[in-house]
Amino acid sequence: MDFKFDxxxxxxxxxxxxxxxxxxxxxxxxxxxxxxxxxxxxxxxFQDMLDRSGYVVKTxxxxxxxxDAPWDAFIxxxxxxxxxxxxxxAATAAWxxxxxxL
Length: 102
Prior knowledge:
Blueprint: H1 9-20, H2 34-40, H3 46-52, H4 60-64, H5 68-78, H6 84-100
């Protein structure tokens, strides 16, 4: 018995993988979509989370100035993740998957 496989989509997938290969500067809000935030947090968006966090965040420097331990505790209390690193890692993985259209 012979099987026929249609592998025409592999070229497109390979092109997408090559585009993602290496390091990329992706704005933090890109992986933290409203869909991701609603699914994994009690917030409607990343901006909503920042606004309700108690920190004034108007610039990336403001965000970087937030102490790690209180921010991680805030994330643990308001999301399905134990800390900010895990949340950002999951959002980035979901972003990469969308880029590959998987």
